[in-house]
Amino acid sequence: MCIPFKRIIERFLFFIFIATVSSLIMSCAPTRQTPKILDEDVPKVNLAYQIQRIEIVDNRRNVSGGEMKIPTLSTPKSYIKHSPAVTVEHRQEIEGFCRNNINGSGPSVQAIVILVDAYKEFSATAMTERERGHVKMEVTLYDLATDKQLISCESTADFGVESRDANQEKMEKIYRYSLRQAVYKCFKSIAMSSEKE
Predict the structure, then answer these.
(1) Residue 80: which H helix or E strand, with range?
(2) What 3-state DSSP class applies to 86?
(3) pLDDT tens column, 67-124
(4) Contact of 84 with 68, CB cutoff 8 Å
(5) What 3-state class would DSSP assign to 105?
(6) What share of the chain is helix, strand, coil (3-state, %, to 5)?
(7) Contacts with 116 (C-beta within 8 Å, 6 or more apart), sequence order
(8) Does 145 lie in the same domain as 176?
């Protein structure tokens, strides 16, 4: 028994319609899960210094005012890049992580942390939304007794998450995680160069 060509086309179009509607419903369904890694501590390095002062210098020229506005309903090819000002919380994140990675032995130092580039990024496709944090920094340690530079490093941290429900809270967690990762990578490179000497 032959099925008329017109009925085949109708069934095919109906299937396409159902698949499209289903994918749209699934993409709008909230899944408020934050990746576990964002709540975990970045590993410690334990550098042999006594950190007395930490100065954070923002060398970015494109700092954005206010909070990043993540759209409630995104469209494919949506894109937002936001370079947030250094807040009190961001300073506490950097300073706390620096102090937790210094073990209190060795010379007394001042740490100069320079933010070369740091931003939050949001983008979307038809099926997912992507949140990303990017941080490039330089850290220099100065001997407080002599005012001489002891060591310096630079690092880049980049971390992103794909989901169906980008939101402000998760974006901020991703950005702070990137700040910690950048300090960790920098201190790790200092530790490795000290081991070689």
Answers:
(1) strand 79-82
(2) coil
(3) 888 888 888 888 999 999 999 999 999 999 898 888 778 899 999 999 999 999 999 9
(4) yes
(5) coil
(6) 35, 30, 30
(7) 59, 60, 136, 137, 138, 154
(8) yes
Cα–Cα nearest to 153, from 178, 123, 189, 179: 189
Spatial distance between the Cα atoms of 135 and 154, rounded to a whole number of angstroms: 11
- Structurally, the chain folds into a number of domains equal to 2
**pLDDT value of residue 24:** 46
Same domain flag for 3 and 49: no
Question: Which range marks the domain in which residue 121 is found?
Answer: 43-196
Q: Quick check: is 37 in a domain?
A: no
CB atoms within 10 A of CB 158: 13
pLDDT tens sequence across 1-46: 455 667 777 776 666 656 554 554 444 433 344 455 555 566 778 8
The total of other beta-carbon atoms located within 10 Å of residue 185's CB is: 19
Question: What is the three-state SS of 132-180?
Answer: EEEEEEEEEEEECCCCCEEEEEEEEEEEEEEECCCCHHHHHHHHHHHHH
Q: What gap in Å lies between CA 146 and CA 110, rounded to an integer? A: 11
Q: Whole-angstrom Cα distance, residue 41 to residue 157?
A: 15
Dist CA 134 CA 63 (whole Å): 14
Residues contacting 6, CB < 8 A, separation 6+: none
